[in-house]
Design goal:
The protein is an all-alpha fold. Helix content is 71%, strand content 0%. It is elongated, with a radius of gyration of 19 Å.
Amino acid sequence: MSSCCQVVRKHLAALRAGTAEPVRADIPSPRKITSWIMRPRETLTDSQNERLIQVRLACPDLTRACDLACAFAGLVRH
């Protein structure tokens, strides 16, 4: 058995025994992500911009949606 399987088995055993907490990702809400996408990039704080970059890297579909939304917003603004 590979070492990664052993790690997973140990973690699952700890979860079942109630001795380990599951790791939860800090995922922004869809509303928050949408607000970051729809606002001009220069109005985002450094923290918001970094989080948006992280979300875009994690989800290629969201990256495409963000690009399309930004292009549409540019058309509407100009």
